[in-house]
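Memo to structure team: turn this sequence into structure tokens by end of day. - J.P.
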Amino acid sequence: MPTTIPSITSSTRPGSPSAGDAYFETDTKDYIIYDGANWRGYVSDGASGWSGSNTDSLNFDGTDDRLDAGSVVTPSATSGTISAWIKTTSTAYQAIFSTATTVDNGTWGWMAVYNNKLRITFRLSMGTVKTADGSTTINDGSWHHVVVVSNGTAYNLYVDGSAETLTNSNNDGTWYGDLTGLTTTNIGSHVRTSAGNFFSGNIDEVAVWDSDQSSNVSTIYNSGSPGNLLSLSPKAWWRMGDGIEANSGTTVYDMSAFSNNMTMSSAPAYQSDTP
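Reply from structure team:
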């Protein structure tokens, strides 16, 4: 980007831009370009950041669609947070975000929809499973914001910005750094020796932190309108069409500083259906 591009802030963007208008935002440190319909943001390494809008999500068919990361996203953290927006009517046991070994009886941890509620499960070994379930029905066909948190000693679950009453809770806060042999990270499916527990519906704005973000849940939820998460320094943030992929191609880019990009398996579809 040329250094002569004028400077603004994210709150002073022009109200009636023309296609091709470009600015440098001093608060986000992003260059932004208006593409004729939306603002697109580009950080200094060329990866798209916050575009100022949320226009797309990914639809998963519940049969074989998923996203695969090239490496384990949270290999050593003993506390952490996973956030996502989801929309589903399925009654199946379906994965939202999962990290696992490649052997069936190995270790794994995932955020899922189970019995129509939010669930977090970590398996340390055969017969040693830590699980906590939420209390709010989230498969009603409406968009819901779901968050699972470990502070290192206990889990907390949140739906639409509010803390859940936990049931079926074996609650010691086990997280990915407590597991061994992790090799896969996925969105929309749980992958061990083979893929399963496929998600049916839409997933948007998935973010992961290597820290307890309980105090920031209301900021992440943003009154029901997904916003810019970069100030919270996520370990990964997949915008599901609103990143550098711009609702095209088979790579869903990580908008954090860590480049944990995801590759489509089968054909989850970009849709203009968002929270």
